[in-house]
Amino acid sequence: MKFLLLSHISPPATDGGSKVIYEISQELEKKHQVLLVSSNCQSTDDFVNPKSKSLKNGLPVYKFLYRPLKLLSLIFPSFLIFAKGPIFKLIPSIKTLIKIYKFKPEFIIAGPFPTTISIYARFLSKIIRPHPKLILIPCFHFTDPIFRKKILLNTLKNADYIWSLTNFETQSYINEFKIDSKYILTLGAGISPHFFKTPPNTPKTPRQNLLFIGSFAAHKGIEILIDAYISLIKKHPKLSLTLAGHPTLYSPIIERKINNLSPDIRKKVKIIYNPSSTALPLLIDHCSILILPSTQESYGLVLLEAMSRKKPVIATNIPALCEMIKKSNSGLTFKKNNVSDLTNCLTKLLRSPKDMSEYKESGYRYVVSNCKWDKIINKLCQNICP
Which of 252, 292, 341, 384 could make an SS bond with 315 (beta carbons 3.0 to 4.6 A apart)? Predict the structure, then answer.
């Protein structure tokens, strides 16, 4: 079979949705013909930041259109989708369009929302002959109003299949948007094979270290984690905090908060920008607990990555993360934006090696059984080509 995969961020992707698209392409290439197309940006901030470095691979984007499109969105709300980009430059787009047309994909897999990628994918599915089937991976954030823009919902309802990441997402499509369940594939997502290549490594001299991995965006809740860490440090003076991920336009606010800490606390907080994909397993191996304090997540891929390295997790009690932690029995959840509740969860785990051990083993078993890409892609192919 021939698959065209479209993503808004170029690999190695830092965004969870784009990482999923890239890893699907890697698995599909083992048995099928694959063409992967993305922008030459590493994050959504790169669509609008003229100072950001462009990657060699991927389609270049227009960065000067962001402000006029955002102004237009005040009158025409759907324009906000285009302001989120990417808006690909004309000549490279035409060349890529010709390449895609010659490739003649049978299926287009595209995502995530709420960028322009799904709109491009729908357009391609209409102009290519014979028409390829469109599979969307929306990574839907149900609390974010921009995901409900009419142009996106129309694209969603016109897809041949919707790749859902959780049961919560599936039921929301059925109950809220009245989408027939036969068009929804609840497949979840896997994690990169390199997390399984080497067994989890417990350092010879383990130390208490809290770890966050993700973009430094406002909705990731990093400030909540920092506040919880400050509350813990008096009773756990050896405890450190590591924040790893891709910098964003919001990063200076987080850096300023850390710089305002007292020197004895500040020296125990470490920021690691742009860790390589191969470095992530080692980072996780050297932590005690991985925390995901986001207010919006469609899945929480980093939780699976932590489970694969036998680490307990703590996450916000939003539906997608609650579902994952409940299914895997891999850790605890805390009330969204509640520093006190996060502090209590951390205290409970740090004081209970028995609970930590149970969560480690349970999470690991879940990932091995459910989150390997070969199994997920086999399910995909069985559903789209019965």
Answer: 292
The secondary element (H helix, E strand) that includes residue 31 is none
CATH superfamily, domain 194-370, is Glycogen Phosphorylase B; (3.40.50.2000)
List phi, psi (to 5°) of 329: 50, 50
Full-model pTM? 0.91
Residue 50: Cβ-neighbour burial (10 angstroms; 0-12, 13-18, 19+): exposed
Q: How far apart are CA 195 and CA 113, in angstroms?
A: 26
Spell out the residues 6+ positions from residue 349 whose beta carbon is closer than 8 angstroms to its own. 288, 289, 312, 314, 331, 332, 355, 356, 359
Closest by CA to 5, choosing from 16, 15, 26, is: 26
78 compared with 261, residue with greater pLDDT: 261
Distance, in Å, from the CA atom of 268 to the CA atom of 57, rounded to the nearest integer, reads 37
- If one compares 321 and 9, the residue with the highest pLDDT of the two is 321
> Please, which contacts does 63-72 make with residues 24 or more away whose CB atoms are closer than 8 Å?
none
154: how many CB neighbours lie within 10 A of its CB? 12
Query: Distance between CA atoms of 369 and 317, rounded to whole angstroms?
Result: 24
CATH topology of domain 2-190+371-384: Rossmann fold (3.40.50)
Would you say the CATH fold of 194-370 matches that of 2-190+371-384?
yes
pLDDT tens-place string over residues 15-29: 788 889 999 999 999
| Intra-chain end-to-end CA distance of the chain, in Å | 13
